[in-house]
Write a sequence for this structure.
């Protein structure tokens, strides 16, 4: 009931800013994963390269490079799982220590008069909780992918070789998609911290975050490299 009462007292500009960041988060993720055919995102471009990886994997001997690579992908998700848990724990500790939070708000130029400080922390914590779940699932899927890779025969003429490789590729792509969703949640969690400085700061931070994500997916140098045909140079 206390949470509902606190939300009911949030001014309209703050509610609009919160709605804006949630909609921006959903819309940005949808656009990156479902881009127009004339402007494919980096994430979609990498999906085909993951399929190429597994096709080459069938005949690669030895497979130490692939073992190392899939291990590195799992280590990356493990790092972000730990970081997300620490961030959520830190946020929960701040919310639980309301007296220290009020003192902090009084010493810093934070907008804590109109909206409760603890309520504002729930927004980035929500994004971090989503990131944690995505990273955990990505870690598990990369593990499934590793098992399927181990089941891929070395012989190209084996009827199971490319079938298992295709399965591993699709699991790898699904894991990467979940991993990328977790990263986007971290981006928006950082933007959500702007609410501590007011509704306008939250809106501006959201706009900046969307601009950064869109540029990196659709107008970055890495995208140009992926699309460049080096055979014609």
């Amino acid at each position: 009931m206390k949470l509902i009462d606190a939300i009911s007292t949030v001014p309209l500009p703050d509610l609009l800013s919160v709605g804006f960041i949630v909609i921006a988060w959903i819309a940005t993720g949808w656009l990156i994963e479902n881009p127009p055919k004339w402007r494919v995102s980096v994430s979609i471009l990498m999906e085909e390269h993951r399929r190429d990886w597994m096709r080459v994997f069938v005949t690669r001997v030895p497979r130490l490079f692939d073992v190392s690579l899939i291990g590195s992908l799992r280590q990356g998700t493990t790092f972000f799982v730990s970081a997300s848990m620490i961030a959520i724990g830190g946020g929960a500790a701040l919310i639980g220590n309301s007296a220290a939070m009020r003192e902090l708000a009084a010493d810093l130029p934070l907008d804590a008069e109109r909206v409760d400080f603890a309520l504002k922390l729930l927004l980035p914590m929500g994004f971090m909780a989503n990131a944690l779940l995505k990273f955990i699932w990505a870690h598990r899927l990369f593990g499934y992918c590793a098992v399927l890779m181990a089941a891929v025969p070395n012989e190209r003429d084996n009827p199971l070789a490319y079938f298992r490789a295709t399965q591993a590729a699709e699991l790898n792509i699904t894991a990467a998609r979940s991993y990328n969703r977790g990263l986007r949640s971290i981006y928006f969690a950082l933007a959500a911290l702007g609410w501590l400085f007011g509704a306008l700061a939250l809106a501006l931070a959201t706009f900046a975050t969307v601009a950064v994500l869109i540029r990196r997916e659709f107008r970055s140098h890495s995208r140009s490299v992926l699309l460049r045909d080096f055979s014609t140079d």
Notes: The mean pLDDT is 88. Residues 138 and 175 are 4 Å apart (CA to CA).
